[in-house]
Amino acid sequence: MPSTQPGRELVTNYLKDNGIKVTDLAKMYGMTKQEVSNYLTGTKTNPAANQFILKVIRDFKI
């Protein structure tokens, strides 16, 4: 499975630059804060994590 590190960094930097909290992102996607946090930090790198990162990149046009 390819690394999602570049995508995670893009999303994390975007959130920071735009003042979006992980909690708010989690609410937008109907997920828990912990789940989103695990995806963004790379704690979880399963296919669902990859799909989430790609979805956020597409939705926010990052």
From TrEMBL:
Coiled coil: none annotated. Residues 13-47 form the HTH cro/C1-type domain. Pfam families: HTH_26. InterPro entries: Cro/C1-type_HTH, Lambda_DNA-bd_dom_sf. GO terms for molecular function: DNA binding. This is Helix-turn-helix domain-containing protein.
